[in-house]
Amino acid sequence: MTATPNAWTVELDTTPDRSQSQEEFLLHRPGAGGGTERIALHDYATVYAVPGLYEEVVQRRLECSSPATVASALAEAAGEQVTDLRAFDLGAGNGVVGEELTARGVTVVVGADGIPEARDAAHRDRPQLYRHYLVGQRLDSGRVRDLITDEGLNTLVAAGAVGQGHVPVDALGELWDAFPSGSHLALTVSDVDGRSDLADVETMLARRTATRVLIRRHFRHRLSMAGTELFYVVLVAVKD
């Protein structure tokens, strides 16, 4: 277990051969009124409710590199124009990805997630990062198109947010269709044990003849709780 500044400790459940959606950990709270709580890693409403818990488990303990990887790949593809990028952060959570984008010169304007707890955690942990934060499993297309136009959005980012029971690939495609020519798309997607997430994304992109892939490479997304390396693919594309 690892102590944190918040005085709670975390114990990972290292049961082997669990899928990402099945992983759990124990949260130990000391003192009066404390106790131990078993939490599913993908129970984001519960995870985000505890300041610093997501960073402790996912970023530090499981060494998740998707936020930094997608931000670096986008910056690489954009080159000197990186500071001209105005991003829509899909599956933004509490702002870990948005923070990485900002560090590389991207202007992060909009965050979006499926649960209000993510929005509340982003505003709590990283105030001022997002000018707008949308909530919903299926975002209102009219609202999104208005934001793209009004805010001059030209970048769609989704780090670890597509597939694996999160944002459906067709919903990503609908969002991407709303972005103007010259826009960038940057995402990381699962390539674990031959799952179809990557194939579905590549099929979606191939159907959009104006979309050209600039970067496609494998990387270690994170460790599983059992210590297995999980590999994803980072993709960056541009709309001609």
Instruction: Determine the number of helices (DSSP H or I, runs of at least 4 residues).
Output: 8
- The CATH homology group name of the largest domain: Vaccinia Virus protein VP39
Provide the number of structural domains: 2
The side-by-side strand order for the widest beta sheet comes to 7-6-5-8-9-11-10
Quaternary organisation? single chain
Q: Extract low-pLDDT stretches.
A: none
Structural class determined from secondary elements = alpha/beta
Fold-level CATH name of the largest domain: Rossmann fold
Roughly how much helix do the residues carry, as a percent range?
25-40%
Major pleated sheet? 7 strands, mixed
pLDDT averaged residue by residue = 93
CA radius of gyration is 18 Å
CATH architecture of the largest domain: 3-Layer(aba) Sandwich
CATH class of the largest domain: Alpha Beta
Strand content: 25-35%
Gap between N and C termini? 49 Å
| Strand runs, count | 11
| Helix-strand pattern | EEEEHHHEHEHEHEHEHEE
Protein name: Methyltransferase family protein
Organism: Pseudonocardia sediminis
InterPro entries: SAM-dependent_MTases_sf
Question: Could you explain the architecture of this structure?
Answer:
- This protein is α/β, with parallel strands linked by helices.
- The protein has two domains: 60 residues, no CATH class; 174 residues, Vaccinia Virus protein VP39 (Rossmann fold, 3-Layer(aba) Sandwich).
- The chain has eight helices and eleven strands.
- The protein has a seven-stranded mixed β-sheet with strand order 7-6-5-8-9-11-10, with helices on both faces. It has a four-stranded antiparallel β-sheet with strand order 1-2-3-4.
- β5, α4 and β6 form a beta-alpha-beta unit.
- The radius of gyration is 18 Å and the shape is globular.
- The mean pLDDT is 93.
